[in-house]
Amino acid sequence: MKKLNGKVNILVIISGIAVGIAALVLTFLGNPKNMGFCIACFERDIAGALSLHSAAKVQYMRPEIMGLILGAFIIALITKEFKPKAGSSPATRFVLGMAVMIGGLAFLGCPLRMVIRIGGGDVNAMIALLGFVLGVFIGTVFLKRGFTMQRAYKATLVEGSTMPAVAVMLLILGITAPAFIKISVEGPGSMHAPFFIALVVALVIGALAQKSRLCMVGGVRDVILFGDFKLLYGFVAIIITIVIGNLIMGNFNLSMQSQPIAHSSTLWNVLGMMIVGWGSVLLGGCPLRQLVLAGEGNGDCAVTVFGMIVGAAVSHNFGLAGNPDSTNELGEYVVGGISNAGKTAVIICIAIVLIISVLNCKKEAKNNG
Amino acid sequence: MVDARGYLCPMPVIMVQKEVKKNTPRTLEVLVDDACAKENVTRFGTSQGYKVTVKETDDGFKLTLTK
Q1: Interchain pair B39, A213: CB under 8 A
Q2: What share of chain B is helix, strand, coil (3-state, %, to 5)?
Q3: Which of the two residues, A348 and A333, has the higher pLDDT score?
Q4: Could you tell me the residue range of the domain that residue A282 belongs to?
């Protein structure tokens, strides 16, 4: 048994190092700095490419997302871990997916980008980590108090294959690039690594993440719940890899200001990542893990991913996402942050996640009684 | 018997943890339906001093935890 545990831990560490290297390589090849491999940002870009929102700077059919899903799908098929299932509160998961995305875009990133930003020396992300850990802690309190979204059941092959099939369709749209697919000409959406290189890298990472169960939320959650550090090794491996890579390439900049595509509005960074941590614990995994599970045939996680994409569209259509700090024409530093609408949305999302948390605990208590 | 089929991690481990805390059983059977839950319950059981045996079933795995 000890041997098995050892092998699993090594695989998590290898996966973490691979994610870190992938983020560095993709950034070197053109992806936005300190972003590399952000699930929230890339789902938002896909939402933009499909005209679900009209923020001109964040529209691109990111192959990384499709690669992660299909990498997990292929390895799950090979290892007989592809198991279609669904039926665990899909509508609730859709709403939680939206909330996680709105919180993430207030901060400007998912847990994976938070880790990548920390590895680049972004102090805002280091502070946001506190909010993320607080959110995970709150989520685990509800798990211990009996939170459940009820069980899933065996589903049809069609249900299990929906997310991989959608990923293939999105890939075809990305490759053929018909006129209705939007591509940014400036801003983060215009910065991207070569399409097929990004796809291959993501296929490998998707397969590794599926086998190692790598999860940014799980790393912190399992330490709090069980004192189990297995997944945290992956979390730490990513940070160490990125720090070393950025130091070698001269991209490490320990500062709150002038960080790539980031804002220094501390409270909203913390609250945004608190929603992400809390919501992801209720969902059973971080945005990366949701993609992997959707690739394994989990229809509930596919619904969560759809919720996150709609959340990204809502975020940009209503001006809820964070605005990065910038420098104006006079060379003055302009602090970004989020709009009043964005602040309101963050508070509403906290309320929604709280209501879902509380009501799903009560339901279980009644059932048991 | 803990039936954790259909639950995403960490729910299967939490269900087993609650049962272990409540009743401290010498033997506990756990049903799970995916490899991730199988690995996590096995790791948790081992950490609590149980010997864990795994048997494949039609729709997943049956784990037997014994002390």
Answers
A1: yes
A2: 40, 35, 30
A3: A348
A4: 2-368
